[in-house]
Task: inverse folding
């Protein structure tokens, strides 16, 4: 049982260290002497391309390092600079890949204006929204909580 707890703590530490290094490497220039296998994926140049993708996903190889395995379920935004091989990669050759996630949204899902806004802001209808809060500190009445 103690060994299992140590292994879980070690995996959590590796995951947090890798996430920190990935985020830190996005803010500072690359300090590794070796050139990365793939360049960082930047934002698309045109406005049409910006809506085409919604994020990036790290696709680890079958025999990947622990760092890639820990980051495999995380969706990165297009602004995140994810470079391969990862800073915490302990493999001699990294075959992991970065995949762009396509945006499947095609347009607005609402067919028309919400009916509540039509009623709420229509001329002749009073504003029925409450002006006071609903917390105990906000409700003061005889016999109740007065703070």
Result:
């Amino acid at each position: 049982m103690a060994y299992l707890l140590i292994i879980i703590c070690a995996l959590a530490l590796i995951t947090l260290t890798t996430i920190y290094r990935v985020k830190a490497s996005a803010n500072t220039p690359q300090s590794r002497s070796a050139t990365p296998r793939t360049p960082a994926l930047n934002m698309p140049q045109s406005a049409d391309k910006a809506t085409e993708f919604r994020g990036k996903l790290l696709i680890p190889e079958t025999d990947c390092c622990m760092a890639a395995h820990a980051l495999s379920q995380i969706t990165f935004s297009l602004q995140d600079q994810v470079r391969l091989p990862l800073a915490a990669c302990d493999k001699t050759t990294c075959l992991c890949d970065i995949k762009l996630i396509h945006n499947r949204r095609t347009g607005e899902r609402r067919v028309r204006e919400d009916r509540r806004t039509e009623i709420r802001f229509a001329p002749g209808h009073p504003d029925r929204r409450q002006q006071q809060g609903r917390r105990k500190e906000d409700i003061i009445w005889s016999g109740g909580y007065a703070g």
About this structure: The first strand starts at residue 53 and ends at 59. DSSP finds four helices and three strands in the chain.
